[in-house]
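HOLO CASE FILE
Compound: magnesium ion
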Amino acid sequence: MIRQLLKRVTYSTTATYSTTATYSTTATYSPSYLKLQVGLIQRCKRHEKTDNLYISDIDINKGDTIQVCSGLVPYVPIEQMLLKRVVVITNMKSRKLKGEVSQGMILAAEKVVDEKTKTVVVEPVEPPKSSVIGERLYFDKEDRDFEPPKLKEKVWAYLQPKLGTNEDKQVVFENKTLLRGENRDDFASGPDYKIVVLGAGGVGKSSITVQFVQGVYIESYDPTIEDSYRKQIEVDGRACDLEILDTAGVAQFTAMRELYIKSGKGFLLVYSVTDENSLKELLALREQVLRIKDCETVPMVLVGNKCDLEEDRVLSIEDGVQVSQDWGLVPFYETSAMYKTNVDEAFIDVVRQIMRNEAAISVEKKILKEKHKLEQAQAQESQKSNLTYSETTTTQQYGGNENPNTQLNSAAAPPATTLTGRFTQLSGVNSSKSSSGNKCCTIM
Ligand SMILES: Nc1nc2c(ncn2[C@@H]2O[C@H](COP(=O)(O)OP(=O)(O)OP(=O)(O)O)[C@@H](O)[C@H]2O)c(=O)[nH]1
Ligand SMILES: [Mg+2]
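Model generated. C-alpha coordinates follow.
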Protein backbone atom coordinates (compact mmCIF):
# COMPACT_ATOMS: atom_id res chain seq x y z
CA MET A 1 0.00 0.00 0.00
CA ILE A 2 2.80 2.38 0.93
CA ARG A 3 4.48 1.74 -2.40
CA GLN A 4 1.26 2.34 -4.14
CA LEU A 5 0.81 5.58 -2.32
CA LEU A 6 4.34 6.63 -3.10
CA LYS A 7 3.79 6.16 -6.78
CA ARG A 8 0.98 8.66 -6.81
CA VAL A 9 2.10 11.17 -4.28
CA THR A 10 4.13 14.20 -5.10
CA TYR A 11 5.92 15.61 -2.14
CA SER A 12 6.89 19.14 -1.72
CA THR A 13 10.51 19.76 -0.85
CA THR A 14 9.52 20.10 2.78
CA ALA A 15 7.67 16.84 2.85
CA THR A 16 8.87 14.05 5.00
CA TYR A 17 8.40 10.40 4.57
CA SER A 18 9.61 7.73 6.87
CA THR A 19 9.31 3.99 6.89
CA THR A 20 6.62 4.32 9.51
CA ALA A 21 4.55 6.03 6.85
CA THR A 22 4.32 9.48 8.28
CA TYR A 23 3.03 11.71 5.54
CA SER A 24 3.56 15.36 5.43
CA THR A 25 0.38 17.34 5.04
CA THR A 26 2.07 19.08 2.14
CA ALA A 27 1.88 15.92 0.07
CA THR A 28 -0.31 16.21 -3.00
CA TYR A 29 -2.65 13.44 -4.00
CA SER A 30 -4.42 13.19 -7.29
CA PRO A 31 -8.23 12.99 -7.30
CA SER A 32 -7.97 9.46 -8.62
CA TYR A 33 -7.44 8.41 -5.01
CA LEU A 34 -11.17 8.70 -4.65
CA LYS A 35 -12.90 5.62 -5.95
CA LEU A 36 -16.20 7.14 -6.92
CA GLN A 37 -19.08 5.03 -8.10
CA VAL A 38 -22.71 5.53 -8.98
CA GLY A 39 -24.94 3.92 -6.38
CA LEU A 40 -28.66 3.39 -5.97
CA ILE A 41 -30.13 3.56 -2.50
CA GLN A 42 -32.22 0.45 -2.21
CA ARG A 43 -33.15 0.61 1.45
CA CYS A 44 -32.87 3.37 3.96
CA LYS A 45 -33.68 3.54 7.65
CA ARG A 46 -32.91 5.80 10.57
CA HIS A 47 -30.10 4.82 12.92
CA GLU A 48 -31.66 3.67 16.16
CA LYS A 49 -29.00 5.17 18.39
CA THR A 50 -28.66 8.65 16.96
CA ASP A 51 -30.92 11.30 15.47
CA ASN A 52 -28.85 12.33 12.49
CA LEU A 53 -27.83 9.22 10.66
CA TYR A 54 -29.47 7.24 7.91
CA ILE A 55 -28.34 3.72 7.29
CA SER A 56 -28.60 3.00 3.59
CA ASP A 57 -28.06 -0.12 1.55
CA ILE A 58 -26.54 1.13 -1.66
CA ASP A 59 -26.34 -0.97 -4.80
CA ILE A 60 -22.95 -0.33 -6.38
CA ASN A 61 -22.63 -3.22 -8.75
CA LYS A 62 -25.50 -5.24 -10.17
CA GLY A 63 -27.06 -6.02 -6.82
CA ASP A 64 -23.87 -5.86 -4.72
CA THR A 65 -24.73 -3.55 -1.91
CA ILE A 66 -22.73 -1.73 0.71
CA GLN A 67 -24.05 -0.23 3.91
CA VAL A 68 -23.40 3.46 4.37
CA CYS A 69 -24.23 5.67 7.34
CA SER A 70 -24.76 9.28 6.33
CA GLY A 71 -25.60 12.37 8.32
CA LEU A 72 -28.27 13.48 5.88
CA VAL A 73 -31.26 13.15 8.20
CA PRO A 74 -31.61 16.92 8.80
CA TYR A 75 -31.46 17.68 5.09
CA VAL A 76 -33.17 14.97 3.08
CA PRO A 77 -36.52 13.35 3.91
CA ILE A 78 -36.28 9.59 4.03
CA GLU A 79 -38.68 9.11 1.13
CA GLN A 80 -36.30 11.11 -1.05
CA MET A 81 -33.41 8.88 -0.07
CA LEU A 82 -35.14 5.77 -1.36
CA LEU A 83 -34.25 4.88 -4.94
CA LYS A 84 -31.97 7.88 -5.13
CA ARG A 85 -28.94 7.69 -7.39
CA VAL A 86 -25.93 8.90 -5.49
CA VAL A 87 -22.17 9.23 -5.85
CA VAL A 88 -20.43 7.00 -3.34
CA ILE A 89 -16.80 6.86 -2.30
CA THR A 90 -16.26 3.14 -2.10
CA ASN A 91 -12.63 2.90 -1.06
CA MET A 92 -12.92 4.30 2.43
CA LYS A 93 -11.94 2.08 5.28
CA SER A 94 -15.00 0.43 6.76
CA ARG A 95 -16.05 2.02 10.06
CA LYS A 96 -18.62 1.52 12.76
CA LEU A 97 -20.89 4.39 13.66
CA LYS A 98 -22.72 3.81 16.92
CA GLY A 99 -22.49 0.12 16.26
CA GLU A 100 -23.51 0.24 12.58
CA VAL A 101 -21.04 -0.56 9.84
CA SER A 102 -20.38 2.15 7.29
CA GLN A 103 -18.52 1.01 4.20
CA GLY A 104 -18.46 4.18 2.16
CA MET A 105 -19.54 7.78 1.93
CA ILE A 106 -22.23 9.57 0.03
CA LEU A 107 -20.92 12.69 -1.65
CA ALA A 108 -23.06 15.72 -0.92
CA ALA A 109 -22.76 19.42 -1.65
CA GLU A 110 -23.60 22.03 0.91
CA LYS A 111 -24.40 25.66 0.51
CA VAL A 112 -24.86 28.39 3.07
CA VAL A 113 -28.16 29.98 2.11
CA ASP A 114 -28.20 32.54 4.88
CA GLU A 115 -24.92 33.87 6.19
CA LYS A 116 -26.53 35.51 9.20
CA THR A 117 -28.27 32.46 10.54
CA LYS A 118 -25.68 30.11 9.06
CA THR A 119 -28.49 28.19 7.43
CA VAL A 120 -27.11 25.44 5.27
CA VAL A 121 -28.73 23.25 2.65
CA VAL A 122 -27.15 19.94 1.85
CA GLU A 123 -27.92 17.83 -1.19
CA PRO A 124 -26.43 14.54 -2.28
CA VAL A 125 -24.51 15.02 -5.52
CA GLU A 126 -26.26 13.69 -8.61
CA PRO A 127 -24.33 11.21 -10.74
CA PRO A 128 -23.90 11.99 -14.45
CA LYS A 129 -27.17 11.60 -16.27
CA SER A 130 -26.39 8.64 -18.47
CA SER A 131 -24.19 6.80 -15.97
CA VAL A 132 -25.32 3.42 -14.77
CA ILE A 133 -25.33 1.90 -11.31
CA GLY A 134 -21.84 0.73 -10.37
CA GLU A 135 -20.12 2.88 -12.99
CA ARG A 136 -16.85 4.48 -11.92
CA LEU A 137 -16.67 8.25 -12.10
CA TYR A 138 -13.49 10.19 -12.78
CA PHE A 139 -12.12 13.66 -12.65
CA ASP A 140 -9.62 13.19 -15.39
CA LYS A 141 -8.75 10.84 -18.16
CA GLU A 142 -5.15 10.07 -17.28
CA ASP A 143 -5.87 8.44 -13.96
CA ARG A 144 -8.37 5.89 -15.15
CA ASP A 145 -6.01 2.94 -14.87
CA PHE A 146 -5.20 3.64 -11.28
CA GLU A 147 -6.92 1.40 -8.75
CA PRO A 148 -6.92 3.48 -5.58
CA PRO A 149 -5.99 1.86 -2.28
CA LYS A 150 -8.23 1.97 0.77
CA LEU A 151 -8.29 5.62 1.60
CA LYS A 152 -6.32 6.81 4.58
CA GLU A 153 -7.71 9.61 6.61
CA LYS A 154 -4.87 11.94 5.67
CA VAL A 155 -5.37 11.37 1.98
CA TRP A 156 -9.04 12.20 2.31
CA ALA A 157 -8.27 15.24 4.43
CA TYR A 158 -6.01 16.46 1.65
CA LEU A 159 -8.45 15.80 -1.19
CA GLN A 160 -11.67 16.95 0.38
CA PRO A 161 -11.02 20.71 0.52
CA LYS A 162 -10.21 20.69 -3.18
CA LEU A 163 -13.63 19.39 -4.16
CA GLY A 164 -16.36 21.80 -5.02
CA THR A 165 -19.30 22.50 -7.24
CA ASN A 166 -19.57 25.04 -9.99
CA GLU A 167 -22.54 27.14 -11.05
CA ASP A 168 -24.09 24.28 -12.98
CA LYS A 169 -23.88 22.06 -9.91
CA GLN A 170 -21.14 20.04 -11.56
CA VAL A 171 -18.59 18.55 -9.24
CA VAL A 172 -15.11 19.95 -9.78
CA PHE A 173 -11.68 19.20 -8.40
CA GLU A 174 -9.57 22.29 -7.77
CA ASN A 175 -11.92 24.11 -10.15
CA LYS A 176 -10.15 22.36 -13.01
CA THR A 177 -11.53 18.95 -13.68
CA LEU A 178 -15.15 17.91 -13.84
CA LEU A 179 -16.50 14.71 -12.42
CA ARG A 180 -17.68 12.61 -15.32
CA GLY A 181 -18.85 9.15 -16.15
CA GLU A 182 -17.65 6.88 -18.93
CA ASN A 183 -19.44 9.06 -21.39
CA ARG A 184 -17.15 12.04 -21.22
CA ASP A 185 -19.63 14.37 -22.85
CA ASP A 186 -21.95 13.70 -20.00
CA PHE A 187 -21.51 16.29 -17.32
CA ALA A 188 -21.93 15.53 -13.69
CA SER A 189 -25.22 17.29 -13.59
CA GLY A 190 -26.67 18.33 -16.88
CA PRO A 191 -30.20 19.37 -17.64
CA ASP A 192 -32.62 17.09 -15.99
CA TYR A 193 -35.44 15.62 -18.05
CA LYS A 194 -37.15 13.28 -15.70
CA ILE A 195 -40.55 12.45 -17.08
CA VAL A 196 -43.16 10.55 -15.13
CA VAL A 197 -45.98 8.68 -16.86
CA LEU A 198 -49.11 8.59 -14.74
CA GLY A 199 -52.61 7.21 -15.20
CA ALA A 200 -55.06 4.47 -14.28
CA GLY A 201 -54.29 0.77 -14.70
CA GLY A 202 -54.35 -0.63 -18.23
CA VAL A 203 -54.64 2.67 -20.11
CA GLY A 204 -51.42 2.00 -22.00
CA LYS A 205 -48.72 3.86 -20.05
CA SER A 206 -46.17 1.10 -20.51
CA SER A 207 -47.12 0.59 -24.15
CA ILE A 208 -46.66 4.28 -24.92
CA THR A 209 -43.37 4.42 -23.04
CA VAL A 210 -41.91 1.31 -24.65
CA GLN A 211 -43.09 2.46 -28.05
CA PHE A 212 -41.34 5.79 -27.54
CA VAL A 213 -38.12 4.38 -26.06
CA GLN A 214 -37.73 1.16 -28.01
CA GLY A 215 -40.07 1.52 -30.97
CA VAL A 216 -41.98 -1.68 -30.22
CA TYR A 217 -45.56 -2.37 -29.26
CA ILE A 218 -46.43 -4.62 -26.35
CA GLU A 219 -49.53 -6.64 -27.05
CA SER A 220 -49.76 -8.40 -23.70
CA TYR A 221 -50.82 -6.76 -20.47
CA ASP A 222 -48.50 -7.08 -17.52
CA PRO A 223 -49.37 -4.58 -14.76
CA THR A 224 -46.40 -2.40 -13.96
CA ILE A 225 -44.92 -1.97 -10.51
CA GLU A 226 -42.30 0.52 -11.61
CA ASP A 227 -40.06 0.72 -14.65
CA SER A 228 -37.46 3.27 -15.53
CA TYR A 229 -36.11 4.00 -19.01
CA ARG A 230 -33.44 6.22 -20.46
CA LYS A 231 -33.35 7.70 -23.90
CA GLN A 232 -31.32 10.34 -25.63
CA ILE A 233 -33.10 12.55 -28.10
CA GLU A 234 -32.44 15.82 -29.79
CA VAL A 235 -35.01 18.53 -29.36
CA ASP A 236 -34.57 21.85 -31.13
CA GLY A 237 -30.89 21.11 -31.69
CA ARG A 238 -30.26 20.24 -28.08
CA ALA A 239 -29.26 16.77 -26.91
CA CYS A 240 -31.48 15.67 -24.08
CA ASP A 241 -31.03 12.75 -21.74
CA LEU A 242 -34.45 11.60 -20.74
CA GLU A 243 -35.24 9.50 -17.76
CA ILE A 244 -38.75 8.15 -18.03
CA LEU A 245 -40.52 6.59 -15.13
CA ASP A 246 -43.38 4.29 -16.07
CA THR A 247 -45.51 4.06 -12.97
CA ALA A 248 -48.13 1.66 -11.67
CA GLY A 249 -51.77 2.32 -12.41
CA VAL A 250 -53.14 -0.62 -10.51
CA ALA A 251 -54.12 0.50 -7.00
CA GLN A 252 -52.04 -1.94 -4.99
CA PHE A 253 -48.82 -0.69 -6.55
CA THR A 254 -49.40 3.05 -6.33
CA ALA A 255 -47.88 3.67 -2.89
CA MET A 256 -44.75 5.22 -4.38
CA ARG A 257 -46.64 7.71 -6.52
CA GLU A 258 -45.97 10.68 -4.30
CA LEU A 259 -42.27 9.98 -4.39
CA TYR A 260 -42.27 9.76 -8.20
CA ILE A 261 -44.15 13.00 -8.54
CA LYS A 262 -41.65 14.76 -6.31
CA SER A 263 -38.75 13.65 -8.43
CA GLY A 264 -40.39 14.28 -11.82
CA LYS A 265 -39.89 17.38 -13.91
CA GLY A 266 -42.56 16.68 -16.49
CA PHE A 267 -45.66 14.49 -16.60
CA LEU A 268 -47.67 12.51 -19.11
CA LEU A 269 -51.16 12.10 -17.75
CA VAL A 270 -52.64 9.21 -19.64
CA TYR A 271 -56.21 7.97 -19.93
CA SER A 272 -57.81 5.56 -22.37
CA VAL A 273 -60.52 6.74 -24.78
CA THR A 274 -62.21 3.40 -24.09
CA ASP A 275 -62.48 3.97 -20.34
CA GLU A 276 -64.43 6.88 -18.92
CA ASN A 277 -63.23 6.31 -15.38
CA SER A 278 -59.62 6.58 -16.45
CA LEU A 279 -60.19 10.22 -17.39
CA LYS A 280 -61.93 10.89 -14.09
CA GLU A 281 -58.98 9.41 -12.25
CA LEU A 282 -56.70 11.88 -13.97
CA LEU A 283 -58.47 14.84 -12.37
CA ALA A 284 -57.35 13.71 -8.92
CA LEU A 285 -53.92 12.81 -10.22
CA ARG A 286 -53.37 16.26 -11.65
CA GLU A 287 -54.44 17.81 -8.37
CA GLN A 288 -51.91 15.59 -6.61
CA VAL A 289 -49.14 16.69 -8.99
CA LEU A 290 -49.94 20.39 -8.52
CA ARG A 291 -50.15 19.99 -4.77
CA ILE A 292 -46.83 18.17 -4.48
CA LYS A 293 -45.05 20.48 -6.92
CA ASP A 294 -46.72 23.47 -5.30
CA CYS A 295 -46.81 25.23 -8.65
CA GLU A 296 -49.38 25.94 -11.37
CA THR A 297 -47.03 25.62 -14.30
CA VAL A 298 -45.84 22.05 -14.12
CA PRO A 299 -44.72 20.68 -17.51
CA MET A 300 -47.49 18.30 -18.45
CA VAL A 301 -49.46 16.80 -21.33
CA LEU A 302 -52.85 15.13 -21.37
CA VAL A 303 -52.86 11.93 -23.37
CA GLY A 304 -55.96 10.05 -24.58
CA ASN A 305 -54.58 6.66 -25.60
CA LYS A 306 -55.98 3.77 -27.65
CA CYS A 307 -57.47 6.10 -30.24
CA ASP A 308 -57.21 3.26 -32.75
CA LEU A 309 -60.02 1.43 -30.96
CA GLU A 310 -62.79 3.45 -32.62
CA GLU A 311 -65.48 0.85 -31.91
CA ASP A 312 -64.76 0.75 -28.19
CA ARG A 313 -64.36 4.48 -27.81
CA VAL A 314 -66.51 6.04 -25.08
CA LEU A 315 -64.68 9.37 -24.87
CA SER A 316 -64.57 11.76 -27.81
CA ILE A 317 -61.79 14.13 -28.82
CA GLU A 318 -64.01 16.93 -27.52
CA ASP A 319 -63.99 15.33 -24.05
CA GLY A 320 -60.20 15.52 -24.04
CA VAL A 321 -60.19 19.09 -25.37
CA GLN A 322 -62.64 20.09 -22.66
CA VAL A 323 -60.39 18.73 -19.91
CA SER A 324 -57.35 20.37 -21.49
CA GLN A 325 -59.21 23.70 -21.40
CA ASP A 326 -60.30 23.17 -17.82
CA TRP A 327 -56.65 22.62 -16.97
CA GLY A 328 -55.56 25.90 -18.49
CA LEU A 329 -54.87 24.63 -22.01
CA VAL A 330 -52.60 21.78 -21.07
CA PRO A 331 -51.44 20.30 -24.42
CA PHE A 332 -53.65 17.38 -25.41
CA TYR A 333 -52.81 14.43 -27.66
CA GLU A 334 -54.86 11.46 -28.70
CA THR A 335 -52.41 8.62 -29.14
CA SER A 336 -52.22 5.04 -30.23
CA ALA A 337 -49.37 3.08 -28.74
CA MET A 338 -50.24 0.34 -31.21
CA TYR A 339 -49.65 2.51 -34.27
CA LYS A 340 -47.24 4.97 -32.64
CA THR A 341 -49.63 7.81 -33.34
CA ASN A 342 -48.63 11.04 -31.59
CA VAL A 343 -46.43 9.13 -29.14
CA ASP A 344 -43.17 10.97 -29.92
CA GLU A 345 -45.07 14.24 -30.13
CA ALA A 346 -46.48 13.88 -26.61
CA PHE A 347 -43.07 13.17 -25.05
CA ILE A 348 -41.31 15.91 -26.99
CA ASP A 349 -43.96 18.40 -25.92
CA VAL A 350 -43.17 17.66 -22.26
CA VAL A 351 -39.43 17.99 -22.91
CA ARG A 352 -39.99 21.40 -24.53
CA GLN A 353 -42.04 22.53 -21.57
CA ILE A 354 -39.29 21.43 -19.19
CA MET A 355 -36.74 23.34 -21.30
CA ARG A 356 -38.86 26.47 -21.16
CA ASN A 357 -39.26 26.11 -17.41
CA GLU A 358 -35.53 25.68 -16.87
CA ALA A 359 -34.76 28.63 -19.12
CA ALA A 360 -37.17 30.80 -17.14
CA ILE A 361 -35.59 29.70 -13.88
CA SER A 362 -32.09 30.41 -15.14
CA VAL A 363 -33.14 33.91 -16.32
CA GLU A 364 -34.65 34.51 -12.90
CA LYS A 365 -31.43 33.36 -11.27
CA LYS A 366 -29.35 35.66 -13.48
CA ILE A 367 -31.53 38.63 -12.63
CA LEU A 368 -31.24 37.87 -8.92
CA LYS A 369 -27.50 37.54 -9.25
CA GLU A 370 -27.17 40.85 -11.04
CA LYS A 371 -29.41 42.47 -8.47
CA HIS A 372 -27.29 41.12 -5.69
CA LYS A 373 -24.09 42.31 -7.38
CA LEU A 374 -25.56 45.77 -7.74
CA GLU A 375 -26.63 45.85 -4.12
CA GLN A 376 -23.19 44.81 -3.02
CA ALA A 377 -21.54 47.45 -5.13
CA GLN A 378 -23.90 50.06 -3.73
CA ALA A 379 -23.21 48.97 -0.18
CA GLN A 380 -19.49 49.15 -0.77
CA GLU A 381 -19.82 52.54 -2.37
CA SER A 382 -21.85 53.91 0.51
CA GLN A 383 -19.39 52.73 3.09
CA LYS A 384 -16.62 54.47 1.20
CA SER A 385 -14.08 52.26 2.73
CA ASN A 386 -11.83 49.52 1.58
CA LEU A 387 -14.25 46.96 2.75
CA THR A 388 -12.92 43.59 1.97
CA TYR A 389 -14.93 40.55 2.50
CA SER A 390 -13.96 39.18 5.86
CA GLU A 391 -13.22 35.56 5.93
CA THR A 392 -15.44 33.72 8.28
CA THR A 393 -15.12 30.26 9.50
CA THR A 394 -18.16 28.40 10.51
CA THR A 395 -18.10 25.23 12.36
CA GLN A 396 -21.02 22.98 12.11
CA GLN A 397 -21.75 19.44 12.91
CA TYR A 398 -23.63 16.96 10.84
CA GLY A 399 -24.33 13.49 11.96
CA GLY A 400 -25.46 12.21 15.26
CA ASN A 401 -22.22 12.04 17.11
CA GLU A 402 -21.05 14.74 19.39
CA ASN A 403 -17.53 14.40 18.26
CA PRO A 404 -15.15 17.35 18.03
CA ASN A 405 -13.47 15.70 15.10
CA THR A 406 -16.61 15.57 13.06
CA GLN A 407 -16.78 19.24 12.44
CA LEU A 408 -17.55 20.93 9.23
CA ASN A 409 -15.05 23.65 8.74
CA SER A 410 -16.20 25.88 6.05
CA ALA A 411 -13.69 27.68 3.99
CA ALA A 412 -13.77 31.42 3.77
CA ALA A 413 -17.19 32.40 2.54
CA PRO A 414 -16.92 34.19 -0.76
CA PRO A 415 -19.41 36.85 -1.77
CA ALA A 416 -22.82 35.35 -2.35
CA THR A 417 -22.67 36.02 -6.07
CA THR A 418 -19.89 33.55 -6.50
CA LEU A 419 -21.01 31.04 -3.96
CA THR A 420 -22.07 28.10 -6.00
CA GLY A 421 -22.14 25.48 -3.38
CA ARG A 422 -19.55 24.13 -1.13
CA PHE A 423 -19.07 20.54 -0.97
CA THR A 424 -19.72 18.17 1.72
CA GLN A 425 -19.35 14.56 2.32
CA LEU A 426 -21.26 12.99 5.11
CA SER A 427 -20.63 9.62 6.48
CA GLY A 428 -18.53 7.10 8.07
CA VAL A 429 -14.98 8.30 8.25
CA ASN A 430 -13.41 9.10 11.52
CA SER A 431 -10.40 11.16 12.04
CA SER A 432 -7.52 9.31 13.57
CA LYS A 433 -8.39 10.65 16.98
CA SER A 434 -12.03 9.79 16.99
CA SER A 435 -13.49 6.49 17.86
CA SER A 436 -16.81 7.20 16.28
CA GLY A 437 -18.52 9.91 14.37
CA ASN A 438 -19.10 10.95 10.85
CA LYS A 439 -16.90 13.45 9.24
CA CYS A 440 -18.32 16.26 7.27
CA CYS A 441 -16.28 18.27 4.93
CA THR A 442 -16.78 21.36 2.90
CA ILE A 443 -15.20 22.50 -0.23
CA MET A 444 -15.61 25.62 -2.20
N1 LIG B 1 -55.47 -1.19 -29.23
C1 LIG B 1 -54.62 -0.65 -28.38
N2 LIG B 1 -54.26 -1.32 -27.29
C2 LIG B 1 -53.37 -0.75 -26.45
C3 LIG B 1 -52.83 0.53 -26.69
N3 LIG B 1 -52.01 0.83 -25.69
C4 LIG B 1 -52.01 -0.22 -24.86
N4 LIG B 1 -52.84 -1.17 -25.30
C5 LIG B 1 -53.08 -2.46 -24.66
O1 LIG B 1 -53.64 -2.23 -23.40
C6 LIG B 1 -53.15 -3.16 -22.43
C7 LIG B 1 -52.58 -2.41 -21.24
O2 LIG B 1 -51.45 -1.67 -21.67
P1 LIG B 1 -50.28 -1.28 -20.67
O3 LIG B 1 -49.37 -0.42 -21.47
O4 LIG B 1 -49.70 -2.44 -20.02
O5 LIG B 1 -51.11 -0.41 -19.62
P2 LIG B 1 -50.53 0.36 -18.34
O6 LIG B 1 -51.20 1.65 -18.29
O7 LIG B 1 -49.08 0.35 -18.37
O8 LIG B 1 -51.06 -0.55 -17.16
P3 LIG B 1 -50.50 -0.62 -15.64
O9 LIG B 1 -49.05 -0.88 -15.73
O10 LIG B 1 -51.24 -1.75 -14.99
O11 LIG B 1 -50.83 0.65 -15.01
C8 LIG B 1 -52.14 -4.00 -23.16
O12 LIG B 1 -52.71 -5.23 -23.52
C9 LIG B 1 -51.78 -3.19 -24.39
O13 LIG B 1 -51.43 -4.02 -25.49
C10 LIG B 1 -53.24 1.21 -27.87
O14 LIG B 1 -52.84 2.33 -28.20
N5 LIG B 1 -54.12 0.58 -28.69
MG1 LIG C 1 -47.74 -0.42 -17.13
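CASE NOTES: Residues 199, 201-207, 218-221, 223-224, 248-250, 305-306, 308-309, 336-338 surround guanosine-5'-triphosphate (ligand 1) (CB under 6 Å). Confidence is low (pLDDT under 50) at residues 1-25, 387-444.
CLOSED: yes
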